[in-house]
Amino acid sequence: GENVEQHPSTLSVQEGDSAVIKCTYSDSASNYFPWYKQELGKRPQLIIDIRSNVGEKKDQRIAVTLNKTAKHFSLHITETQPEDSAVYFCAASRLNTGTASKLTFGTGTRLQVTL
Amino acid sequence: KAGVTQTPRYLIKTRGQQVTLSCSPISGHRSVSWYQQTPGQGLQFLFEYFSETQRNKGNFPGRFSGRQFSNSRSEMNVSTLELGDSALYLCASSQGLARYNEQFFGPGTRLTVL
Question: Are A105 and B44 in contact (CB < 8 Å)?
Answer without folding.
Answer: yes
